[in-house]
């Protein structure tokens, strides 16, 4: 983290600490407490929404569970604050795991519906379980007494501030670790994530549990802040408000949730004070005009793109002088703000601010420095060798059938892959090559047949466990983690090397730092190996297509595979790049890694493959050395649609 960032954080905490002294109004102190509490919840919600990319409509319910756990423990059992809060985190985390179970089966809008149902059920349960929750009458709670001193509103402000700073610290460390990368990876490409050994199921549950724990913390703090809780608070409106706050503030940032919390808590107050509304709306209009002037001059946006935002913000500022009671139009203004942010600032307000900052200070996000300063920069090998001790088969696929409805994409296919060889898989379009890859890597479970890898039957196991066994792959349609940099993509492939726990991540123990450093060095050298060292900090989605394919190879090698499946690696490469690719595959083989290669560039196949298998209409029609296959009549017929003689 840069010194400027550290200083800004210290200044922000110091400013928050002196706020009650310079602004001692109890009403505003209470508002700031609510902002702090909401910010804690939103930081957790951002893990699910921003990082994992799922829409949760169950977070008001999780907030309610946290609130009621603390409330019930205090009301029924007189459990002290310092025990009630961790208990709330644990109970809500458990409910988060329950909420995540459907996430294993469904996602997108279906998951949103399931979480909505969860929210409704929880609200009904809180209402109905009168013996525990006091039903609609609610529960009264007092702020704690510590060492004979009754905690006041101002004292409580500091308690929430400490909780918020700790929450920020913990979330930041988690999201910047291999765990955060796993969350992002499963959002960007669940298939690639599974094939890199990062189980989508496990990490979705992990994200929900963490997020729920944060909601539990926020909920329990809310109970003591309000001193009275009732079921109606944790309704559908609140859940929508939370989602909007994350989206408006800016997902995948730490400041976004804080800003989102400020907006949703302060907006009703801003709108009920016309003077304050005028000042703020004029401020927003001035900032928009200034940005528009800059963006048009710097040719970042066109006049046409900026006309509507300018009209809306200036109209808002002017309307303040014609309307005396703006609070009636509260929902309209809120709606306009949401539309504005979703349409013009898809990454939220902080995402927009960051994009401007990055323009001036690119080094702020380019946090992975060039690690390789010494050594042979041409060919650095970062993967342990796989000595080929015997001539046996590394993989045997027996009688594989893969049926999609009435179509047999693979029909009784047998494959035997020799250890240490480069095995080509060719065939016309639709012959079943990619389906074979998908069956071997567990993405498809074959309708019949079995696969033995390294003496183990792997049929029916998950892609992540097959990856763990040592089978890595690239994809025909590139499956990179687009929003991550090149080096971060490779680091996902190195996920298996991280053995440290969540606690190690939070406290940055020596074990954690050691594993992180060695993974970064390995990732950098893998990038060097595929010739992408200079693009280590570039977001994967910004790389040219050919380079994206090379990055996939580096990421697959990071898994330390004994079998590497390359699906059309030469597609999109230029002639010199293809030459480089051939020598790269040869080098991979020379380190004992067995390769299965699907390729339409016959020169690549013929120059490096030891054996070639030819598929046609899901069946193996030929197998042998490249030369033998090339002159096989059936093969010529399949490729050229004529007889060998004619060909
Ligand atoms: N998930 C699926 N559902 C239904 N049919 C599928 C599915 N996956 C593949 N197929 C079908 O199986 C057949 C084999 O497809 P596959 O993608 O394996 O061919 P391929 O040899 O890799 O072709 P190409 O060279 O064009 O990539 C095709 O007819 C395809 O439409």
Give me the secondary-structure category. Answer: alpha/beta
| Low confidence ranges | 363-369, 643-647
CATH superfamily of the largest domain: P-loop containing nucleotide triphosphate hydrolases
Count up the helices.
Answer: 26
Overall structural domain count: 2
Shape: elongated
Biggest sheet: strands side by side, in what order?
A: 10-11-12-7-13-14
Largest sheet: 6 strands, mixed
Distance from N terminus to C terminus (CA atoms, Å) equals 64 Å
- Kindly state the mean pLDDT as a whole number? 88
CATH topology-level fold name of the largest domain: Rossmann fold
CATH architecture of the largest domain: 3-Layer(aba) Sandwich
* Cofactors, ions, other ligands: adenosine-5'-triphosphate
Q: Strand tally, please? A: 14
Protein name: Vitamin B12 import ATP-binding protein BtuD
Pfam family, one: ABC_tran
Subcellular location: Cell membrane
GO cellular component, one term: plasma membrane
């Amino acid at each position: 983290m840069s010194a400027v960032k550290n200083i800004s954080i210290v200044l922000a905490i110091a400013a928050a600490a002196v706020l009650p002294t310079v602004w001692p109004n109890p009403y505003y102190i209470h508002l700031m407490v609510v902002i702090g509490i909401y910010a804690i919840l939103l930081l957790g919600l951002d893990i699910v929404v921003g990082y994992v990319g799922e829409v949760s409509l169950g977070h008001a319910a999780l907030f309610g569970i946290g609130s009621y756990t603390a409330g019930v423990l205090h009301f029924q059992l007189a459990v002290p604050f310092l025990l009630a809060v961790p208990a709330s985190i644990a109970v809500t985390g458990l409910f988060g795991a329950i909420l995540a179970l459907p996430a294993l089966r469904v996602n997108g809008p279906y998951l949103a519906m399931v979480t909505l149902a969860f929210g409704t059920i929880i609200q009904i349960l809180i209402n109905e379980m009168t013996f525990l929750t006091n039903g609609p009458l609610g529960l009264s709670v007092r702020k704690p007494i510590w060492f004979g001193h009754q905690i006041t509103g101002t004292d409580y402000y500091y308690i929430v501030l400490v909780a918020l700073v700790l929450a920020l610290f913990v979330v930041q460390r988690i999201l910047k670790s291999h765990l955060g990368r796993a969350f992002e990876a499963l959002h960007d490409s669940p298939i690639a994530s599974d094939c890199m050994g990062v189980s989508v199921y496990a990490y979705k549950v992990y994200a929900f549990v963490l997020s729920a724990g944060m909601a539990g913390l926020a909920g329990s703090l809310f109970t003591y802040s309000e001193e009275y809780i009732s079921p109606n608070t944790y309704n559908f409106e609140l859940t929508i408000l939370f989602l909007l706050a994350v989206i408006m503030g800016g997902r995948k940032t730490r400041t976004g949730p804080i800003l989102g919390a400020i907006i949703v808590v302060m907006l009703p107050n801003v709108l009920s004070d016309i003077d304050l509304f005028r000042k703020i709306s004029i401020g927003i209009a001035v900032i928009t005009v200034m940005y528009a002037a800059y963006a048009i001059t710097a040719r970042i946006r066109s006049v046409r793109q900026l006309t509507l935002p300018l009209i809306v913000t200036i109209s808002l500022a002017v309307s303040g002088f014609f309307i005396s009671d703006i609070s009636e139009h509260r929902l309209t203004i809120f709606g306009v703000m949401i539309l504005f942010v979703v349409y013009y600032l898809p990454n939220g307000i902080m995402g927009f601010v960051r994009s401007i900052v990055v323009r001036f200070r690119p080094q702020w996000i380019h946090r992975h420095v060039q690690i390789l300063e010494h050594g042979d920069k041409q060919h650095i090998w970062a993967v342990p060798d796989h000595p080929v001790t015997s001539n046996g088969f590394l993989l045997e696929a027996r009688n594989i059938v893969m049926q999609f409805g009435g179509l047999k994409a693979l029909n009784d296919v047998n494959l035997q892959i020799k250890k240490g060889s480069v095995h080509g898989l060719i065939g016309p379009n639709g012959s079943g090559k990619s389906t074979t890859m998908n069956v071997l890597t567990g993405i498809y479970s074959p309708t019949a047949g079995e696969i033995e890898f390294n003496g183990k039957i792997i049929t029916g196991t998950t892609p992540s466990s097959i990856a763990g066994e040592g089978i890595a792959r690239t994809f025909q349609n590139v499956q990179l983690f687009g929003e991550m940099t090149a080096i971060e993509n490779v680091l996902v492939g190195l996920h298996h090397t991280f053995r440290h726990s969540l606690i190690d991540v939070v406290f940055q123990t020596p074990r954690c730092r050691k594993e992180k450093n060695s993974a970064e060095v390995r990732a950098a050298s893998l990038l060097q190996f595929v010739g992408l060292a200079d693009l280590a900090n570039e977001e994967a989605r910004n790389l040219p297509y050919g380079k994206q394919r090379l990055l996939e190879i580096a990421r697959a090698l990071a898994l330390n595979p004994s079998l590497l499946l390359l699906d059309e690696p030469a597609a999109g490469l230029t002639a010199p790049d293809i030459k480089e690719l051939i020598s790269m595959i040869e080098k991979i083989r020379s380190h004992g890694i067995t390769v299965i290669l699907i390729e339409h560039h016959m020169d690549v196949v013929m120059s490096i493959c030891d054996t070639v298998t030819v598929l046609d209409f899901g069946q193996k029609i030929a197998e042998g050395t490249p030369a033998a296959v090339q002159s096989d009549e059936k093969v010529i017929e399949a490729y050229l649609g004529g007889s060998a003689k004619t060909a």
